[in-house]
Amino acid sequence: MENIIPAITYIMALLLRVETLDIRRRGGQLKITGTLLTVSGAVLLILYKGPMLDFLWFSKGVKQQAGSLGQSSNGGDPTSLMWIRGMIMLIGSTTCWSGFLILQSNTLESYPAELTITSLVCLMGAAASGAVAFLVERGNTEIWVIGWDMRLFTVVYSGIICTGVSYYVLGMVMKEKGPVFASAFSPLCTIITSLMSSIFLSETISLGMTIGAFIMIGGLYFLLWGKTKEELKFSQAAAVEASVITCDQVPNAEFEQENNYKSGSLPMESSYV
């Protein structure tokens, strides 16, 4: 569901007037096309599986074993209460993340300090996560013990790279390009994760996942194309307006200087022979 974050962010930005949309221009049409393609690719990736694909690094025995595990794990009733509850929680999570992007972009306009905001976000997130873990795992002290193993590496990597560096770079991008541009790259996380898990963990990749990934990449391209065309249009309009203001100010300045000479408020330049 995190693949529809760009679409939710774009809709929320339009409702909050953070983004503008002109359907008559090419930039607005490209942004709408990219949003629809991103949502279509995400829906196709979720609903359609299709046959499993063969890769050079994927052995046949491991593929059959992983396919049997995938079939056994998908054997439950999709209309069960837990499935519906999970979908509602995922939709709420993606909506909250889109709202966080817009809120952080608005905060950076009045307080342009990416490092300080990143530190505050990480501090509040650590406090909230610690409180939730303490309430859920009451009496279980083993979860707080971290040894010199993969758990320590996971915590350090997740805290430094996935949280600290990621939020800092995200703040820099949103400060320059806005929340819609920053959220447009969220579907790439699913695509890169699927590819790396197939290479290192021998997980299967279905045909539907591949087609959905290509559709989402196409939607990302159209969305960024439309965003770039709108920014180019705004920059050209600003340059034309600035040139018009400059041309209007030059005759006015010369006229005021001539009037000052005539009134005697400024001394005339003396000529020497």
UniProtKB/TrEMBL annotation:
PANTHER family: WAT1-RELATED PROTEIN
GO CC, alphabetical: membrane
Sequence similarity: Belongs to the drug/metabolite transporter (DMT) superfamily. Plant drug/metabolite exporter (P-DME) (TC 2.A.7.4) family.
Keyword entries, A-Z: Membrane, Transmembrane, Transmembrane helix
Localization in the cell: Membrane
GO molecular function terms noted in the UniProt entry: transmembrane transporter activity
Membrane topology: Multi-pass membrane protein
SUPFAM superfamilies given in the database record: Multidrug resistance efflux transporter EmrE
Organism of origin: Vanilla planifolia (Vanilla)
Pfam families per the UniProt record, alphabetical: EamA
Residues in EamA domain copies: 85-224
Superkingdom assignment: Eukaryota
Transmembrane segments: 30-48, 82-103, 115-135, 155-173, 180-201, 207-226
Protein name from the UniProt record: WAT1-related protein
